[in-house]
Design brief:
Pathway: Lipid metabolism; fatty acid beta-oxidation. The chain is an alpha+beta fold and 758 residues long. It contains 30 helices and nine strands. 50% of the residues are buried.
Length: 758
């Protein structure tokens, strides 16, 4: 060993190694398993400080297979036409029997199961697209479809089941003979799934008249979707082996088993009432329920391996199902709010022309573009075989939060039209249902404050996880050598990011590379700057706070916000390139990128203003933003341009809202609004003639429409055919802005029935 190496180890790496072990954030077993189970994808590029943008742009374009597209164009459209969301939620409190039968028959409940077992074996993109489109029609129906295709028996069996289990259960799940649910959450364990109190004890017991090795179970679970109608229950519990029947380990850990709900002692059937939505959700309990050992998913060898199984499969719920609900809200609100803002008039003009309304519409359009971009990029990762826990956490948190924001915007714009419940209201049930998506699969507060950066800082950083493993090496000498090899690379990495961050600050990111030219090129340069700033801030945070970083949730949350908005911005840029750089989409792209850069800047500012270690915040500001943070919120002209696009029919509007179900039946609520919108667009030229005559004083401004038309007809300004078109369009307009009303006895009946649990 050279003298220089000896000196480096003695005076640099050994002291650093000792300090690192002191400040090392402790990893619980569940955290370690979560990190080892997942994979690092584009999030690693963003965290590393120097994202390779061509890698992003070279990821496969999202594309459905012919079989998937045919299913969507035929069987999915048939399903959507069968759904009456008002009747489902307000009257039946369940899907109609014929809809349940159709879901079983056409394999909507087995989209992810392999063809060899009778399933559809669809891609993550197809699964997400189907759920998104259903959700624009009925959130309750969408949840019924998404749950069997998310974290649950079908997915767990496909990945971990024994061949015998697969051969028996998967065909039954595929053809709808069995309806699955999965029970994880309980009264004492929600977000802390690793702390579930439900217990199983390895013992001998009686099964079908024979004494067999098995498990005595006790559980109390709640919020379990499809539990009231399930025929097979996936159950997570902690398994104990006090007598050593399986080995010398008494505490085996979290285990997953599959139990028929008609098995003695299993309790299902009671229902919760999740914000008055109609999807089946309820508790399940069991007291001293004995099951054979081979009911463990994966068999006896998988006893105690349930947590890793769950973490590896959580990406379906976080990356497909719940983001699909968020994207659905975008497609639906963008299409309906644009139409309503044109149809509804006040002071003689469409309300979308008022700047206050246009501001909210700009947010709806910009967020909708970003929602769909994030949906497709996230499913791309899953279809590539990745298990990107950080990416899916970002998608789940931000897509459901963006959906909540634009739902509020849409409700504000629709005003009274949105708050009167009835068959004509297409917003109300989504408004009730979105908080459900925000709550499940890891509550959003937990996801933002603990998961995205808390796990990402360790998992995505190019060196920290390896350094932690070196520090935890029981062979201290070997660990020190491994650490020494990593330390130099880490120091070089940190110095490079600091120097480049300073260069970016003084040059406005001009020397950063962009993979494209045109109006979006500058965004790549600024995002590279933010990526480097995140890398620097992450290193300073982990070095100065160490294990305390876990408890400093506000620091973690804000740095997670930076990583998240870098991901959302990346998704937006990729979508723009994948779809052929559609110029009419540029306002939405500008809005999304300006919003993301602004949010990154806000997050950095809050970190630096509130950093727990004195002086570190000021140092970070000096290194990263010595000239200030100059990223502004989306510009007014962009929001107004988006508002006009939403109020104008054409390919751009259809592309932005392509998954929104409009319907063709006379009573379809969105179809009513759409027909009025198109009809009023068709009479724009006639309306301009009337406006011109009013300005000239030939027609009284405050006259009712029929009087205006009579005067215009008498003066030869318009023809009788044009009068008919105007009257037809106005009749559609009045129907579109109308709300439901009920006779007193009918209203009382509906109110009483909605308060009953089905």
């Amino acid at each position: 060993m050279s003298t220089l190496t000896n000196l480096r180890q003695r005076y640099l790496s050994e002291p650093a190694f000792k300090m690192f072990k002191k400040v090392l954030p402790p990893l619980s077993d569940t955290e370690r398993e979560a990190m080892e189970a997942g994979s690092v994808w584009w999030d690693g590029e963003l965290f590393g400080g120097s994202p390779e943008w061509n890698t992003l742009l070279n990821y496969p374009k999202p594309q459905l297979t012919d079989e998937e597209q045919t299913f969507i164009d035929t069987k999915l459209e048939t399903l959507l036409a069968m759904l009456d969301d008002y009747k489902i939620v307000q009257e039946d409190r369940d899907l109609p029997p014929e809809v349940w039968e159709y879901l079983r028959k056409e394999k909507f409940l087995s989209l992810i199961i392999g063809k060899e077992y009778g399933g559809m074996d669809f891609s993550a993109l197809a699964n997400s697209t189907i759920v998104t489109r259903i959700a624009t029609r009925s959130l309750s129906a969408a949840v019924c479809v998404m749950v069997p295709n998310s974290l649950g028996p079908g997915e767990l069996l496909s990945h971990y089941g024994t061949q015998e289990q697969k051969d028996y259960w998967l065909p039954r799940l595929s053809n709808g003979d069995d309806i699955p649910c999965f029970a994880l959450t309980g009264p004492e364990a929600g977000s802390d799934a690793g702390g579930i109190p439900d217990q199983g004890v390895v013992c001998y017991g009686d099964y079908q008249g024979e004494e067999v090795l098995g498990i005595q179970l006790n559980w109390d679970k709640r919020y379990i979707t499809l539990a009231p109608v399930s025929t097979v229950l996936g159950l997570a519990f902690k398994l104990q082996d006090p007598e050593g029947l399986l080995g010398d380990k008494a505490d085996l850990g979290i285990t997953c088993a599959l139990i028929p709900t008609d098995h003695p002692g299993v309790e299902v059937g009671m229902r919760h009432d999740p914000l008055n939505m109609a999807f089946m959700n309820g508790p399940t309990r069991g007291n001293d329920v004995f099951i054979p050992m081979d009911w463990i998913i994966g068999g006896q060898d998988f006893a105690g391996r349930g947590w890793r199984m769950l973490v590896e499969c959580l990406s379906a719920g976080r990356g497909i199902s719940l983001p699909a609900l968020g994207a659905a809200v975008g497609h639906m609100t963008a299409r309906t709010t644009g139409a309503y803002a044109y149809v509804r008039k006040q002071f003689g003009m469409s309300i979308g022309n008022f700047e206050g309304v246009a501001q909210a519409m700009g947010r709806i359009g910009g967020f909708t573009y970003m929602l769909e971009a994030s949906r497709t990029l996230t499913t791309t990762s899953l279809d590539q075989g990745e298990k990107p826990g950080i990416v899916t956490a970002i998608a789940k948190y931000h897509m459901t939060e963006m959906a909540r924001t634009i739902l509020n915007d849409s409700m504000d714009i629709h005003a009274g039209r949105a708050i009167q419940m009835g068959p004509k209201n297409y917003l109300g049930h989504h408004y009730f249902g979105m908080p459900v998506a925000i709550t499940v699969e890891g509550a959003n507060i937990l996801t933002r404050n603990l998961m995205i950066f808390g796990q990402g800082a360790t998992r995505c950083h190019p060196f920290v996880l390896s350094e932690m493993e070196a520090a935890a090496n029981p062979d201290a000498e070997q660990g020190a050598k491994e650490f020494d090899a990593l330390l130099g690379k880490h120091i070089s990495f940190a110095i490079g990011n600091v120097s480049k961050s300073l260069l970016n600050a003084f040059t406005g990111s001009r020397f950063n590379k962009a993979p494209v030219s045109g109006e979006t090129a500058e965004y790549y340069r600024h995002l590279s700057r933010m990526s480097r700033a995140l890398a620097v801030a992450a290193d300073f945070s982990m070095l100065s706070l160490g294990g305390e970083l876990k408890r400093r949730e506000l620091v973690s949350a804000r740095l997670g916000d930076v990583l998240s908005h870098l991901y959302l911005a990346s998704a937006t840029l990729k979508r723009f390139e994948d779809e052929g750089r559609q110029q009419t989409d540029l306002p939405m792209v500008h809005y999304a990128l300006q919003h993301c850069l602004h949010k990154c800047g806000v997050a950095f500012d809050e970190v630096m203003n509130n950093f727990p270690r004195k002086g570190i915040g000021r140092l970070l500001r000096t290194l990263l933003f010595p000239l200030g943070i100059r990223y502004q919120a989306p510009k007014d002209e962009v929001t107004i341009e988006i508002a006009q696009l939403l109020m104008t029919p054409g390919a751009h509007r259809d592309r932005l809202t392509k998954l929104c179900y409009v319907g063709e039946k006379d009573g379809d609520p969105i179809a009513i609004m759409e027909r009025a919108f198109i009809a009023l667009q068709d009479v724009k030229d006639i309306d301009r003639k009337l406006i011109k005559a009013i300005k000239a004083g030939d027609i009284p401004r405050k006259a009712i429409l029929s009087e205006k038309l009579d005067l215009a007809l008498a003066s030869g300004l318009i023809t009788e055919h044009e009068v008919e078109k105007m009257n037809h369009a106005d009749a559609l307009r009045r129907r579109a802005i109308s709300v439901d009303d009920f006779a007193s006895e009918e209203f009382t009946r509906l109110t009483l029935e909605s308060g009953k649990a089905a």
